[in-house]
Q: What sequence folds into this?
């Protein structure tokens, strides 16, 4: 698992110089949620608010994320992807799909089916432990 995580971080760095694995994860979450508060990110990932604040600050500085007033509560700021953030996330997602296709090109159908089933099973177990989506 350590090698898998190390490879994921290295791959993220190669795919886009501005996007660490953490940055990619946060951007993906914002895209999936359609925006959310920084405190929601901290709670979802069980991270300290100051850690999220630093990460979000870097994403804002890179022009990938922006804060908008919540239309229902003007005391709250909601984080959203900028147009550039959407584009960068799409580029990285496409690059990841190409890399996966290349790595799995020699795998036979039954192996791919078992691998996919194991990944689904693992993600379902992780989601049950976390209480959140896989």
A:
């Amino acid at each position: 698992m350590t090698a898998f995580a190390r490879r994921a971080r290295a791959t993220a760095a190669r795919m886009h110089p501005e996007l660490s694995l953490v940055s990619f994860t946060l951007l993906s979450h914002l895209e999936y949620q359609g925006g959310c508060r920084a405190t929601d990110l901290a709670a979802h990932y069980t991270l300290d608010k100051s850690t999220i604040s630093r990460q979000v600050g870097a994403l804002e500085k890179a022009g990938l994320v922006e804060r908008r007033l919540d239309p229902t509560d003007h005391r709250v700021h909601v984080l959203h992807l900028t147009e550039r953030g959407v584009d960068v996330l799409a580029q990285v997602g496409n690059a990841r799909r190409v890399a996966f296709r290349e790595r799995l090109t020699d795998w036979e159908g039954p192996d791919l089916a078992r691998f996919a089933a194991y990944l689904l099973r693992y993600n379902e177990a992780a989601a049950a432990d976390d209480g959140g989506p896989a």
Summary: Residues 94 and 100 are 10 Å apart (CA to CA). The mean pLDDT is 87. The radius of gyration is 17 Å.
